[in-house]
Specification:
transcription, alpha/beta, Sig_transdc_resp-reg_receiver, single chain, 5 helices, transcription regulation, globular, Two-component system response regulator, Rossmann fold, five-stranded parallel beta sheet, 121 residues, 44% helix
């Protein structure tokens, strides 16, 4: 079973994402900020990361840069979630190493489509 790390400071978003991704046969690990997410990755690198962009302690951009520099950190498919819809914001995330993006709020169909696009399902 593939593992997906869900990183979001909102417990509601994590809960919704967990329900969707478990329905797609992912084992879920949660973190409420980028710092905690890096600790998870140091213990066991997930196949996928659903990553919020705006978080306290360490935001998604900083987390992604740190992840990609870790041994094996180039492997996880990273789908970032954002409420920002400007092209520059999305381009910055993709340039930083994200594989795909999802606009909030998201639903099962959107998550399924994006995870299919990056080859996770």
């Amino acid at each position: 079973m593939k593992t997906c790390l869900v990183v979001d400071d909102s417990s509601v978003i994590r809960k919704v994402a967990r329900r969707i991704l478990e329905g797609l046969d992912f084992q879920i690990v949660e973190a409420e900020d980028g710092e905690k997410a890096l600790e998870v990755c140091k213990r066991a690198m997930p196949e996928a990361v659903l990553l919020d962009w705006n978080m306290p302690v360490m935001d998604g951009y900083e987390f992604l840069g740190n992840l990609r520099r870790m041994p094996g950190g180039d492997a996880p498919k990273v789908v970032f979630c954002t409420t920002e819809n400007d092209v520059a914001h999305i381009a910055r995330a993709l340039h930083a190493g994200a594989n795909e993006y999802i606009m909030k709020p998201f639903d099962k169909d959107i998550v399924t489509a994006k995870f299919q696009e990056v080859g996770l399902i």
